[in-house]
Amino acid sequence: MTLPLPIPPCAKRDGLSGLGCERFEYASTMATTLLAPVKTEREILEHSMTEDDPNANVQPPSEVGNQPRWGPRHRGAQELAELYSPGKRLQEWVCVVVCCTLCISAGILMAKYLRADASLLLAAIAGVLTADFASGVVHWAADTWGAVDLPIIGKNFLRPFREHHIDPTSITRHDFIETNGDNFAITIPVLARIVWQLLTYDKYHIDEQFHWIAYWYLCCIFVAMTNQIHKWSHTYFGLPAWVVLLQEWHIVLPRRHHRIHHVAPHETYFCITTGWLNWPLEKLHFWSTLETIIEALTGCKPRADDLKWAQKRS
């Protein structure tokens, strides 16, 4: 799909040389290509679950035969949900408690070194961008490779990604612990090191490295909050007004923006903290290039396990 440009072609304008005309046409073509939507409205409507339309007033038929293509009645989604175990629940609880303890401790220890300046703002922006990119890498890797039947990581870490594609609204039914446990776990080693630095380094070394410490601390906060932000991007009813405002200003991941990822076969827009990096990474063909290289080296097909579960309708 291309976007119509409001400027007529060179042949219909005066005052441009042949070279100038060619340059303008090239610039116009590039602008049209860059501004073209990643997914069209029709693709979004036909190939993703309409989460903001629970009564299916505008959704095309979402069933193949008598079996649903997605949603909580999908057989694959039900099987995956049943694999959530008490052991996994315990791991999430422990990670949330440890992460919160470390985060609060680090914040208290950092308070006396805090200085409001431009470098702190840069640390915050860098932390957001790092978290957004990290969320994309983890999301892409878990969506694209591996299988639920792999030992340890399959049921514990890949299962939620498979369930989420078949039943995107399942995350809105998860409580705080189930939603955030794994993301909190990722931050524990970094937060532990920050607390250790603040407790053992002398004041001179802490002052010298404080902006790096602040960068990693803020990055951890954004990483820890990523799946909560992701949950909000699937919540179309009952969100607090301040969350909606953050989404509308694209400070956190907007709902409409994230719908692009949920267009089957879920091969783009993987960054889910703010989503700021999705468009440039897509235009650079970053994920598809990685997939081509890995497939050439290993012979593994991207999203093969994801497709297997999506087809498990009965």
From TrEMBL:
GO CC annotations, alphabetized: membrane
Membrane topology: Multi-pass membrane protein
Gene Ontology MF: a single term: oxidoreductase activity
UniProt keywords, alphabetically: Membrane, Transmembrane, Transmembrane helix
InterPro entries assigned: Lipid_desat (IPR019547), Plasmalogen_desaturase (IPR052601)
Domain of life, per lineage: Eukaryota
Cell compartment(s), UniProt: Membrane
Residues annotated as domain Lipid desaturase: 129-305
Region: Disordered, residue numbers: 49-72
A Pfam family assignment: Lipid_desat
PANTHER family: PLASMANYLETHANOLAMINE DESATURASE 1 (PTHR48177:SF1), TRANSMEMBRANE PROTEIN 189 (PTHR48177)
Family note: Belongs to the fatty acid desaturase CarF family.
Protein name: Lipid desaturase domain-containing protein
Protein source organism: Euphydryas editha
